Amino acid sequence: MRLSRLFVRTLRQAPAEAETASHQLLLRAGMIQQLAAGVYSYLPLAWRVMRKIEAIIRQEMDAAGGQEVAMPVLQPQELWQESGRWTDFGPELMKLKDRRERNFCLGPTHEEVATDLARRWVTSYRDLPLILYQIQTKFRDEPRPRAGLLRGREFTMKDAYSFDCDEAGLDVSYARILAAYKNIFARCGLATIVIEADSGAIGGRDSHEFVVLAETGDNEVLICSQCGYAVNQERAEMRKLPLPAEPLKPVEAIHTPGQKTIADLARFLAIPTNKTLKAVFYRADEQIIFCVIRGDLEINETKLANTLRRAWNIGRDLRVAAPEDVQAAGLVAGSASPVGLQGIKIVADDSITTGQNFVVGANRRDYHLLNANYPRDFQVDIIADIALAQRGDLCARCGGSYTALRGVEVGHVFKLGTVYSTKMQACFLDGDNVQRPLVMGCYGIGLGRLLAAAIEQNHDDKGIIWPLPIAPYQIHICALDVDNPQIAATADDLYETLQRAGYEVLYDDRPVSPGVKFADADLLGMPLRLTISPRTLARDSVELKVRKEKEFRLVHGDGVLDEVKQALARA
Amino acid sequence: MRLSRLFVRTLRQAPAEAETASHQLLLRAGMIQQLAAGVYSYLPLAWRVMRKIEAIIRQEMDAAGGQEVAMPVLQPQELWQESGRWTDFGPELMKLKDRRERNFCLGPTHEEVATDLARRWVTSYRDLPLILYQIQTKFRDEPRPRAGLLRGREFTMKDAYSFDCDEAGLDVSYARILAAYKNIFARCGLATIVIEADSGAIGGRDSHEFVVLAETGDNEVLICSQCGYAVNQERAEMRKLPLPAEPLKPVEAIHTPGQKTIADLARFLAIPTNKTLKAVFYRADEQIIFCVIRGDLEINETKLANTLRRAWNIGRDLRVAAPEDVQAAGLVAGSASPVGLQGIKIVADDSITTGQNFVVGANRRDYHLLNANYPRDFQVDIIADIALAQRGDLCARCGGSYTALRGVEVGHVFKLGTVYSTKMQACFLDGDNVQRPLVMGCYGIGLGRLLAAAIEQNHDDKGIIWPLPIAPYQIHICALDVDNPQIAATADDLYETLQRAGYEVLYDDRPVSPGVKFADADLLGMPLRLTISPRTLARDSVELKVRKEKEFRLVHGDGVLDEVKQALARA
Predict the structure, then answer these.
(1) Which chain A residue shows the shortest CA-CA distance from B71?
(2) In this structure, which CATH number among 3.20.20.80, 3.90.1150.100, 3.30.930.10, 3.90.640.10 belongs to the domain B21-189+415-456?
(3) Cys-Cys with B106: which of A344, A501, A513, B94 at CB 3.0–4.6 Å?
(4) pLDDT per residue over A439-456, tens digit each?
């Protein structure tokens, strides 16, 4: 493709709203265009990457025994009522009415449709195992769409569903797809780790996530340096060691003028922060939730949301309460206390039981209470683990210490078991002619996330460094001084030669300066750059540079194809 | 693929609701599954066909200079307000609100998004010409989704948009894509005709449709046997010759007991039907429309809808009025008349001016009026051409006679001109640095319709006969008596051999009767069937049958690959 014909326009500056490396670079490289919050068009270069990722996924899913189908976006309410998710899925489920006022949602995932297909078409154990997959557009009305392709509201996913006779069968299907996923990410040229994940609200036994490692990723993965247990921070548990035991002392109010944060308060009282209890306020749907946790710990909002959902079926729309909400609830920010609190739901982290004689707020401006003890001095509605594990915290399994890696979650696999098949009566006849529910697994890869993660992992300050297998083009030719007919002829010739040899080539034939050409080549990130200039022409050679290397060198025209082959092997 | 593992189940009977051949056969062959009215899952065999069609389209669009992108389904209201189509598109536009109450529609087509992309990215004539295309899911809330994949509410489309400097440039882009379309349909193995189409509400200069010829198609194409003009019946005009002139006679009421239809009335009065005027009632949005047309002609609802939209901006939701609507409007069905009618909109076909002294209703049960003449005796709100041209009618261009062919419309191309670019201010700087609106074309192919049309064109009473280039598999092996280990081994061996030779093979390895196997092979429709049975085994041979031929013959095992090659060349 000649760059002069390509539908692309590069930007020198990233738009201010772009926070992450992939978002900035995709915008600067003219690869995506936002249409609405979390809704993007893929322009030709990015779409070529998507198509390559698609092809790799398809090959590996087919090799794993998957059968490709295409399930609809529009899904009727009745189906989602069977699974209970019409309401349970929360506001992320986008809903609409058709012209006859029938309710539909836009599929955010396809467990319901896949289970429906299976119950209509699978009758006997002879039809099993079965793995269906599709590559298809999904919709989730994210509360905070952000970071370009990393968290969108409309996105492309490969989702797969396995159906087996029993748990042993599921284990086999699950292992096959886990292996396929490893192949997929490796073939995309990406370093990933597999981590154990909590299957959370979906239920079922096992769950794993695939994380593309990247310093700039939006996920923190905790890894125990002792036992190797790896887990997504949003799901990580930790050991909370008890503080040295003390006899309970009487509650006592103390004047703490201007001490609003835990750090201020601990300094003022000359105590460690773990001797305080912190109050944090959330708004779950329309209710205020008072959370209390040991002062040295932070709230994990994923755990809190799961806890709220399990206990009261609320919290699908969870956010930190606004100051006016806190005030309206009669709470004194900076001195709020569970002691004496009435009429507000209280959720406590179990860390409040790890010590005695904590300092808490007094629900009175500039006052706190010393020696508060649970349950002597205050009650709570729920005690659960809602604390955020961080690097340095203790591994929940072995008590070792967590280190942390950052990355981007790109795949997630679940053993669903019979959760959906029981609710939706998706059964088969076993060898003894007994009707039993299908045993299911589900498996997802976000293609747009994968593309963005590839950039998060592979870029420098000049631009993208595409892994060869998913690069839009393998080779980028820069022809400097194209008004010189000899340059143009030589570059045209090289372009043709490389294409005939089977390479995908982007050819910068524009009449612009060398500086612009090199900057664009670095930004667009093809693995190999070949430059034709008056200097190379004089030596009957071509300048060759691998994008991820610093050095470039001249190669003689005759040997270009060999040199290209070798260079791409390193790229 | 072994049929024992394939996610498919064939049916002996077509479900009662399936009207057309493709709908019946797709259901019987287990290729699609309905999820809601006009919303289908594609199961593995049909999806393979879609993927092959996709690949052919992509190659030809790329060869025509198209650049592939992917535009979103979710499209904000603001964009559709710029083009005026947020309301103009009517109830087929599916709308929803996001969690922040912002209005979106589900893209039924992408002129707005494509124009928006072009105005953001195209600045100068140097960026032109530009052809963008995508293969993507579209949504239209059809009033009467029907016929399986022929008219769905969610469907896959290849849509393309061309951008040029001027009309001459548009002509070039248009011709390139027209040529690409011809290649696409030919490469799919389908006989199509290109017909001129009216660009209707979209405006612009030229428009063509591609129709896959099929006796069972839902479109009637009229072709002038004299000048060759070919046009879709829903858009065809015709010459309406004047009847022999007569002096006007006075109106006279006549008792016509029980004569409700035009045929009855004409017989009762012993006059030709073209001496009567017929009343037909429609409901356009919420209004009753009284249509009057010469008794021998029928109403063309597409023309009527266009007329209503142009005149009063109504009629997007047009249907024949229900008897209760007619009665509520004070009309006497069977004797309704434009004479003396008040308070109801009247639309007349211009055929009412082709004669004198017509018989019309009297708005009185069992009475009609003789010698009604327009405009002497009645007025109308609009006179326009709203008549349905039929085979035998006279060509609008040359006065020759129309013959008719049936088919399925699978592609449509339009010269849009500057309709969208003017409304949406999508401009470029020309060579003189003058800002001018982009000159656009748009081009669509319905992939699901194409798949269904392929079946409409290629089937018999036993099942589908896939054209080779888009067949799910090229070869279908039937192994009869698979419990015989020699049969199984021979068939397995043939299956491996053919796959190694690069063929796609469906292998019926199920322990079912020969009758079931042959019936399924005919139903599923792969181009070539190879049978291994005790009989062929005894002769060290394979039975070979091309699906579309009647004969089968034995070929010796050694020569199978050569014979397969030759047979597929005929298939």
Answers:
(1) A41
(2) 3.30.930.10
(3) B94
(4) 999 999 999 999 999 999
Domain B252-384, CATH = 3.90.960.10
Residue A93: both structure tokens together: 């489920």
For residue B47, name the pLDDT band (cuts at 50, 70, 90): very high
pLDDT at A389: 95
Q: Which of residues 54-83 of B touch A (CB under 8 A)?
A: 65, 67-76, 79
In chain A, what residues touch B79 (CB-CB under 8 Å)?
35
Pairing of the two strands B528-532 and B475-479: parallel
pTM of the model: 0.87
Q: Which fold has domain A21-236+404-456?
A: BirA Bifunctional Protein; domain 2 (3.30.930)
Q: Are strands B287-294 and B345-349 parallel, antiparallel or unpaired?
A: parallel
What CATH fold (topology level) applies to the domain A473-570? Rossmann fold (3.40.50)
Give residue limits of the domains in chain A: 21-236+404-456, 252-384, 473-570
Chain A residues touching B7 at Cβ < 8 A: 67, 69, 121, 130, 132
Question: In the Cβ-directed half-sphere of A447, how many Cα atoms lie within 13 Å?
Answer: 26
Strand, helix or coil at A216?
Answer: coil
CA distance B173 to chain A (A): 14
Closest CA to A38 of A169, A142, A109, A188: A142
B298 to chain A nearest CA, in Å? 28
Which residues 186-225 on chain B approach chain A with CB closer than 8 angstroms? none
Q: How far apart are CA A110 and CA A113, in angstroms?
A: 5
Contact B141 A99 (CB under 8 A): yes
Bridge-based pairing of strands B154-164 and B130-139 is antiparallel
Instruction: Tell me, yes or no, if A153 comes closer than 8 A to chain B by beta carbon.
Output: yes
Q: Which residues of A touch B104 (CB under 8 A)?
A: 36
Contact between residue A117 and residue B34 where contact means Cβ atoms under 8 Å apart = no
Are residues A94 and B96, on separate chains, in Cβ contact within 8 Å?
yes
- pLDDT, one tens digit per residue, over B159-190 is 999 999 999 999 999 999 999 999 999 999 99
The most confident of the ranges A200-214, B389-403, B497-511, B547-561 is: B497-511
On chain A, the residues whose CB falls within 8 A of the CB of B130 are: 7
Chain center to CA of A255: 45
Tell if the CB–CB gap between B70 and A143 is shorter than 8 Å. Answer: no
Question: Which residues from chain A sit within 8 angstroms of residue B36, using beta carbons?
Answer: 72, 74-76, 102, 104
In this predicted structure, the answer to whether residue B490 has a pLDDT above a threshold of 70 is yes
Interface contact B47-A41, CB threshold 8 A: no
* pLDDT score recorded for residue A460: 95
Nearest to B39 among A8, A68, A74 (CB): A74
- B47 by Cβ neighbours in 10 Å (0-12 / 13-18 / 19+) ranks as buried
The predicted pLDDT at position B120 comes to 94
Cβ-based neighbour number of residue A227 at 10 Å = 12
Average pLDDT of span B32-37: 95
Q: A199 pLDDT band (50/70/90 cuts)?
A: low
The pLDDT of A166-189, averaged and rounded, is 96
B375-408 b/e (C-beta count within 10 Å ≥ 16 → b): eebbebebbbbbbbbbeebbbbeeebbbeebbbb
Residues of chain B with Cβ-Cβ distance to A424 below 8 Å are: none
Sheet holding B382-384, edge to edge: B318-320, B277-284, B287-294, B345-349, B382-384
Shortest distance between the Cα of A184 and any Cα of chain B, in A, equals 21
CA dihedral A5, A7, A12, A16 (to 10 degrees): 170
